[in-house]
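Interim report, section 4.2 (structural modelling).
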Amino acid sequence: MTTLGQSWKSALIGALACGALVCMTSAAGQTQPDTAARGKQLYFQHGCYGCHGFNGETGNAPHLVGSPLLTNAQTFIAFLRLRAGYRPLLPSTSMPSFSASDLSDADALELYSYVHAFVLDAPNPQGIAAFQKVLESAKAPYQPSTQLPSP
Amino acid sequence: MTTDDRPPALDRRQFLKGAATGAAAAVVAVPAAVAQSAAAADAPSGDTPVPAPNAAGLARDAGNVYPPPLPATTVNRAGSDLMVQTLKDLDIEFVAANPGSSFEGLQESVVNYGSPRNTMPEWITALHEETAVDMADGYGKATGKPMCVMLHGTIGLQHGSMAIYQAYYSRTPILLIAGRDDDFIQAQTGNDMGALVRSFTKWDAHPQTLAECLDALQEAYRQAITPPTGPALVVIDTDLQKQDSGALTVPRYQPPVIPGIDPAMAHELGQRLLSAANPRIAVGHLRTPEGVRQAIELAELVGASTSTAATSGPMSFPQGHPLCGPGASTTYDFTLGLEIRSPDIELIGPELASIAAERDRAGVGFGGLRANHRTQPFGRRNAPPRPEGRRISIDAEASLPQLISAVRSLRTARSERLIAERSQKHATANREAAVRAAQAGINKDRVGWDGSPISTARVYADLWPFIMNEDWCLASPSAFSGSHNNELWQHNRPYSYLGGQGAGGMGYGAGACAGAALAARASGRLVINVQTDGDLNYQPGMLWTAVHHHLPLLTIMHNNRAWHQELMFLEFMAGSRGRGTDRASIGSTLRDPYIDYRKMADAYGMAGEGPIEQPALLEAAYRRGVDCVKRGEPYLIDVITQPR
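Predicted structure of the assembly:
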């Protein structure tokens, strides 16, 4: 997903230029229950979870929480469309493209509403015992292995 | 002896048949005669109804065919007893196999030879030949030593061939024995059975006499552990196993002489290490724990900071050693590579490619092993070239004793003082670097901590407190589950992490973990298997083997209910063709129904629990699992995880 990550800036510029293409019917970020359920279904059905994780913050692809591509719905949908086609303006080697025939504007809006509602789940590691043990190990003096054969 | 050196097997068989007693020959001939007449009687004609199956046909369909009778001679000292004695002398601890009549003589000797009856090598029962070979792969990676696998005829050899192929790419030493019975089921024998796997084994032979057989077993062992290490095969006829050995004895084993650098080169390298202001030793994967010990000794003698490959596979420098890390300064004026590339001088033993042309007589041309191939097996075409210095094509581990000796003779009181001061600075800097790396890893891995399904990072992080003060081995490949051991765990032993599938093929993990657990069973070591769900379904029978042999194996399912890498590839392919991603799950996911791995474990007699989807439940499950494994029994925890 390196290509995608490096292309965010370009995507944003492209999105602003193409924003007028998208007809917005609802305010971004206001997730209604039906919309959330439909968005969740689309997120699973189209396999978004595969690279971004079920909650948009794990996996190999860039995390969705806080992504500049989710600043507003126009940007998100424009980004999807810019990836579409056999010769997309923003080619990638891993992010699938989504043309309007694959994912309608209406469905893209539902999807946007769902992923835009993701919140960061990253608790303070000082309160996590396992992480404190990881740090403890890194700081601990080296103990020569008893399993190594003697000279 | 190679197969090319021997007379055609058919000639020998004809000779043996001619020399057999008349009575035995008559008995052997009966089943064949019956089979021929039955086949004629059963042949349907165009206008008559198909006859009901007769007794012989039913027996054949049910697999109730019988091996040929024993020869009408008295065997006081079976040839297979000497073969087992040969394995004992080679310190072979285990023989893994799925049973087969072509090695029944050998199997009987393994379980009954000697007084008291033999316990080493111990017979390990596998439910599939691929499992048996993968077990040897895991064992070999964990110990640097071969274990033995027996394979039945052409069919067992082909079942095991995938795992042999992976072990070949991993350069894992394995002693393979294929039983051959030319008088039984014809589809299960062949004139040159070794040809089935010759292209991806180090060496093979088909001895014609018992004496040759004992020599061949020893030579196979030598070949397996001589760089480039790898699986070696001996095809053993059933007649040799059953014949009387008379006064024959097992020859004394001569270990291989593996060339190392000469004294002059050792002197030069020693001088360069000692005269450098900031020397560095880059450590790749050595062959045995003894090689690791010597690499540590060399680094300490010269006060060099070291890099390690311990997070990518076995037999490398301990990650927590004070000299392991970037050191006090990253301006290195001389770097010595041990089985890894270096900008200055590198000692790298013979690679697989050096034997590929001679072994690959089928002309497959395996990727990564072809002449002038520029990338490694997993290499990308656009990967930047690594710095490459002066290559000395010689085994690093075999060179270390000479190099250590040279360094010892070159050290002076002044250099010893400088080395001690430098080592102290390195230790401080490396400890700080290790803490920074851990903090960076934690910062990355805390994201998604409380999410459900459970993050792969949490799968690794929550386990660490339970194993950090134990002797442990992560035997499963970790790349598909995020490789979080890299940033969260300390890999300080030669077997801390056994690396990936040699050829990237699925189905390896389960068997390899069982083999690593075999290696660990006597020492109380815990073996960890973060088991991808797709992989386990190739060899679920491993679960029974682990229970049957009381293996200290904790299996934690990385259950993302898919062959997830393929799912992602397919999504991209569908999307790039403008056909939508919504059907990419077809053929790449494990849904409808979901597989219940706790029930699977239960069916094989393994204790376990799950599926667990809530991360808060993980810690208690780990406690129960580790406690069970410490009692000497395997345990499985089914964890529903994030995809990656």
